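From the shared-data thread, chain only:
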Amino acid sequence: MAGSTRGATKTSEDGGPIGPTGRPYHGFPTPPALKSHGPARIIALCNQKGGVGKTTTTINLAAALAQYGRRVLAVDFDPQGALSAGLGIQTHDVPTIYDLLLDTKRDPADAIVHTGTENLDVIPANIDLSAAEVHLVNEVARETILSRVLRKVTPDYDVILIDCQPSLGLLTVNALTASHGVVIPLECEFFALRGVAMLIETIDKVRDRLNPSIKLDGVLATMYDARTLHSREVLERVVEAFGDDVLETVIGRTVKFPDASVSGMPITEFAPEHAAAQAYLRLARELVARGAVA
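Structure, as tokens:
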């Protein structure tokens, strides 16, 4: 159920399988090795609704891209620090993204933590970040502060993933202003659909006023359960609303995600053969195939 092949039982005109999104199911080839690294493309994982899989997706997409030889930096941009905790990173009495925001002249390397996953680094966060909006509100060009921080490390990575907090406040606007693309994790549940229009409107405003190059890299259906009519109907409505912007890969529900988080590991390492791990590897391949990642 956690993988993206569940529900791929119908066939297309050419005889191939139809995936859960109602489109032909593609395998997506293994990305070729990169001949050189950097500069990074920055992707924000954003949704103002909590509990839709943003952090889970950031952790496991980052690990999947790292497994394919991409140098990845994951930025924990949520005061809850769930991404940091999910990768087993200590966040007390250490430099965090909050320190870099308050002192943009500080070397980001001070806060970068190398994880146990090869090619995957993290800038952690903790509850201190909740005070950032108060401190930044009177700063000149306050919406671009994160962009100025990340500019210093983009040459060192192939992709930077920003795990946004469930809000459309100043921190999220900073993330959108710093990013080249946005992936919207969207739970396959009716109420998850309600706020997406507001998020799209925010992205459009950022594009018009702050970051004309930002684009929607895709809407990712998460917590999908092919056994329930509700999940299938919600996914159908998502495809009707967003069309080809909906990623073919669908992430299913599984208890393996919290188990992996407790262990401080990505699911691609905790249970590499599980359908959920394979789904995130497929997501990484799909984003490379779409040109969202080198």
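The chain has one domain: 41-227+240-290.
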